[in-house]
């Protein structure tokens, strides 16, 4: 099987980017090992006012420390921090955006969670999603899986004996019928409810775990759409543009899918602040186009 390094050596990535990708990917090992000792809540809130699990804090501190020590990264924007961490002495011009542990509330019930990463080579964490140089996520399920794009297709690797081995690639997202939607049904807008009804009438199958990265991985493999919409009382949604939408949307686009806020391509939206929220619809291209045609708001 092709290893992660062997794959990266076939790409146009600079050696420093290869080093950074491998460094981040291998943090899956200590993060998984930290699960048992970090089951509780930390008693603190993240930049979006959400209660932090102990492993949220641990993962954020750990990855930030590793990135700063590498001296490869000039800016780090994390869902768990209010401000962008800057390293003016970095020897490279990379900026990393991250959700250190997506779906952390599921750890206590042993469901799948993950780490979402985006890498820019312009030193600016608040850049367009379309300007990402790399997007990746590590998924902690029965296997430790790395899904990666460096702007030339999407590839999936699994960690075995300390080495990531390629399982699939390039990945092409099917035009499937899996769907999942966050928010309470009673709070959905009429437009969003109508859209979900259309999917259900067309044979859509509900799959929703509460872990964005895990739910998206199903969409990537089988096709369909993941939604966390605006609701009647919340027009800005729940998920973050910088840490979640942009990296996942970039992967979706590289696999032939799309991401939207219901009206426009999120990868073309300039972030105004690190913790900016947005409605998210990501998945098969045909469903996103259908969505935008009925003008979800």
From TrEMBL:
Q: Where does substrate bind?
A: 102-105, 208, 238
- What GO cellular-component annotations does this UniProt entry give? cytoplasm
What reaction gets catalysed by this protein? Answer: beta-D-fructose 1,6-bisphosphate + H2O = beta-D-fructose 6-phosphate + phosphate
Question: Any keyword Cytoplasm?
Answer: yes
Give all residue intervals belonging to the Fructose-1-6-bisphosphatase class I N-terminal domain.
18-166
Keyword set for this entry? Answer: Carbohydrate metabolism, Cytoplasm, Hydrolase, Magnesium, Metal-binding
- Domain Fructose-1-6-bisphosphatase class 1 C-terminal residue range list: 175-294
How many and how are cofactors bound here? Answer: Binds 2 magnesium ions per subunit.
Q: Where are the transmembrane segments?
A: none
What is the first-listed, main subcellular location in coarse terms? cytoplasm
Q: Where does Mg(2+) 1 bind?
A: 79, 99, 101
- Superkingdom, natural source: Archaea
A GO MF label: magnesium ion binding
Q: For this protein, what is the EC number?
A: 3.1.3.11
Q: What family is it from?
A: Belongs to the FBPase class 1 family.
Question: Which PANTHER family does the record associate with it?
Answer: FRUCTOSE-1,6-BISPHOSPHATASE-RELATED (PTHR11556), SEDOHEPTULOSE-1,7-BISPHOSPHATASE, CHLOROPLASTIC (PTHR11556:SF35)
According to the record's subunit comment, the protein's assembly and interactions are:
Homotetramer.
Q: Could you tell me what this protein is called?
A: Fructose-1,6-bisphosphatase class 1
Q: What is the lineage of its organism?
A: Archaea, Methanobacteriati, Methanobacteriota, Stenosarchaea group, Methanomicrobia
């Amino acid at each position: 099987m092709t290893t992660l390094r062997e794959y990266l050596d076939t790409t146009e990535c600079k050696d420093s980017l290869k080093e950074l990708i491998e460094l981040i990917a291998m943090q899956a090992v200590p993060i998984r090992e930290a699960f048992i000792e970090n089951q509780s809540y930390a008693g603190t809130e993240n930049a979006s006012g959400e209660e932090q699990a102990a492993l949220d804090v641990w993962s954020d501190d750990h990855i930030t420390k590793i990135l700063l020590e590498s001296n490869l990264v000039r800016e780090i924007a994390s869902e768990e921090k209010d401000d962008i961490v800057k390293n003016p002495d970095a020897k490279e011009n990379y900026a990393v955006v991250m959700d250190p542990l997506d779906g952390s509330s599921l750890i206590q019930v042993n469901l799948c969670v993950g780490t979402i990463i985006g890498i820019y080579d312009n030193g600016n964490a608040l850049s367009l999603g379309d300007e990402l140089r790399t997007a990746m996520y590590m998924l902690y399920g029965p296997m430790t899986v790395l899904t990666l794009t460096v702007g030339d297709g999407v590839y999936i690797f699994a960690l075995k004996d300390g080495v990531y081995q390629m399982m699939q690639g390039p990945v092409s997202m099917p035009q499937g019928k899996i769907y999942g939607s966050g928010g309470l049904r009673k709070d959905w807008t009429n437009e969003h409810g109508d859209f979900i009804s259309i999917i259900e009438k067309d044979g859509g199958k509900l799959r929703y775990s509460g872990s964005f990265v895990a739910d998206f991985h199903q969409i990537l493999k089988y096709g369909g759409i993941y939604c966390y919409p605006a609701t009647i009382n919340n027009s800005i949604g729940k998920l973050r543009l910088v840490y979640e939408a942009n990296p996942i949307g970039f992967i979706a686009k590289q696999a032939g899918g799309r991401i939207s806020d219901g009206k426009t391509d999120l990868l073309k939206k300039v972030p105004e602040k690190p913790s900016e929220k947005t409605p998210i619809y990501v998945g098969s291209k045909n469903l996103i186009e259908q969505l935008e045609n009925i003008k979800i708001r």
